[in-house]
Input
Amino acid sequence: MSIELRCESCGKMLRATAERAGSRAKCPACGHELYIPMPPDQLDELPLTPEDSTELEREQALLEERRALDRALSRESIGADEPAPRRGSQPAPRPTRSGGTGGGNAREAVLAYLQAMRDANFDLAAQKLAVLQRQKAEALEVVDQLATDQLPPPNLASVPSGVYQGFLRSLRSQL
Output
């Protein structure tokens, strides 16, 4: 069986024997070096290994552990001058202007803004920015926390680090 191919340089139609498949040859018309491909009927499909869900779960657990350690280390460096809190006690949440102990809403709005920027949905990003400007203090706190985390939230992990940090700087400057 012969293999038919066209020279990439001069366009001449060439034939090669099946034994020459996978090797290189020169075009007799122009001298251009060509690769002789394997015939499609001789290509073997490579089997894929099944996805290991335990490995994915282990990676996710390690990622969460690293985030927790990063948060703990950033709290240590920020609060080095403050006395350590008593064991078992948690700091009381600060009230927001609306009277609640928010932060969750600011965090959700910041994450929604970042996701909108990632997806180039600038209308939604502008809406979220307007919401964040009403709760500026909480939003700045969330932005600073996200900026000090070495890893972005899981839903933004696909965003390159420089782009992610640029989104945070841009948001901080607009608040």
Q: What stands out?
A: Residues 2-41 form one domain. Helices lie at 53-78, 104-118, 122-134, 136-148, 161-174. DSSP finds five helices and four strands in the chain.
